[in-house]
Amino acid sequence: DLGISGGMLLQDRIYPYLTLNATINLIVTAFIITVLASIYPARLASRMEPVEALHGAN
After folding, report:
1. Domain of 29?
2. Which residues have C-beta within 8 Å of that of residue 1, sequence separation ≥ 6?
3. CB 45 within 8 Å of CB 53
4. Whether the predicted model's global pTM rises above the 0.90 cut
C-alpha cells in the first residue's frame, strides 16, 4: 500500500526553482545578518585602547 501518494508519479530528481526575487531576498538577508553579527564585536573593539586590542586583552 502506497498510501496517499499512491496515485502520484514521483521523480527521482529535484530541480531547483530560483527566481530573481528569491535571489535578491537571499542576498539582502545575508547582508543584514552579516552586518548585525559584526556590530557587537566592532563596538567592543572601538571602546578598547589600540594596544589592548592588539594584545587581545578584555
Report:
1. 15-55
2. none
3. yes
4. no
